[in-house]
Write a structure and sequence with these properties.
309 residues, mainly alpha, 77% helix, disordered C terminus
């Protein structure tokens, strides 16, 4: 299957992950605990895969060689912690500004950082200059997200600091994708890259929990027995991170981001259609946004980029 199609369809998983994590956070009333449960369950799953996957050891050996030879910097290995930071910001800002405004701010941050990290060659591939076409494709993608959530934006939810944090969270995702691409060059195993991400992300969230408990701002809540699907966020994250690490190497961070946005919106459409939240229906705004996101992918020249490699 073509890499651009894989990028698109794996990105639909993130919409389902967001729904699962969001519902878990709502049931627990504790965003950080929900994030830790999600990352921890993902770590458990990828650890089980690692125990049965012979290529894992080769991947870890490749990472060690990369560090020893100097091609892979030690700080690159902290990409997973960026994922932990992202989830922490996400679970704390969404209740303040709403999913719609958060989505627009986050995607804006992702596209901006993707342009920059591509121009720096941070993912390990060739550097890609910031051109008018790439900027235009980014603007179309941000517009697509804005249109898709237009009917759900509540101006009363607008608050400058949470919006800025949402944009920062998106920027962090762009950097994380690039670092994962660099790690994957040396690991040669996307499951190894995913394992490293979940180790680092879970470690960060556990450290954050240890810091918050003495302040009285954190209380453990009993995990709900139902619904079962609120615990699928970790598994979906494992699959997405594993494949996106390979995809970003081939397509670049910006192209991966454009396809990811389209996949996310398509996943949101499926959720609103098959498993709608209370009072939520499929809207013409969301469908229009999805079509606009495809336009952004075309303008960005994703297919042509893949063919040139």
């Amino acid at each position: 299957m073509r890499l651009d199609l894989i990028a698109f369809f794996t990105a639909t998983l993130i919409a389902f992950q967001a729904r699962a994590n969001g519902e878990l956070s709502h049931l627990l009333g504790n965003p950080i605990q929900a994030a830790t449960v999600s990352f921890g369950s993902g770590l458990l799953v990828i650890s089980l895969v690692a125990a049965k996957h012979h290529g894992m050891k080769q991947g870890l050996a490749g990472i060690k060689r990369g560090i020893a030879e100097g091609g892979l910097k030690r700080w690159n290995l902290f990409a997973g912690m960026l994922g932990g930071i992202f989830v922490s910001i996400q679970t704390n800002t969404v209740p303040l500004i709403g999913v719609a405004i958060y989505s627009v701010a986050s995607i804006s941050g992702q596209t901006a950082s993707s342009l920059i990290v591509d121009s720096l060659g941070l993912a390990g591939g060739s550097k890609k200059h910031i051109t008018f076409r790439r900027i235009f494709a980014s603007l179309i993608t941000v517009l697509a997200v804005l249109v898709s959530v237009w009917d759900r934006i509540d101006a009363n939810d607008l608050s400058l600091i949470p919006v800025a944090l949402a944009g920062l969270a998106g920027g962090i995702v762009g950097i994380q994708r690039a670092l994962n691409g660099k790690i994957n060059i040396y690991s040669g195993q996307h499951w190894t890259t995913s394992l490293l991400n979940f180790i680092m992300g879970t470690t960060f969230l556990l450290i954050l929990t240890a810091i918050l408990i003495p302040t009285g701002r954190y209380e453990f809540t009993s995990l709900p027995a139902t619904p079962w699907w609120v615990y699928t966020g970790g598994v979906l994250g494992v699959i997405y991170i594993a494949y996106s690490a390979t995809i970003v190497q081939q397509l670049g961070v910006l192209a991966s981001t454009l396809l990811s946005v389209g996949g996310n919106l398509f996943g949101a459409l499926l959720i609103d259609w098959l498993f709608p939240a209370h009072g939520v229906k499929v809207s013409a705004w969301l469908v229009t946004g999805i079509l606009l996101s495809f336009a952004g992918v075309i303008v960005g020249g994703v297919s042509s980029q893949q063919q040139k490699r």
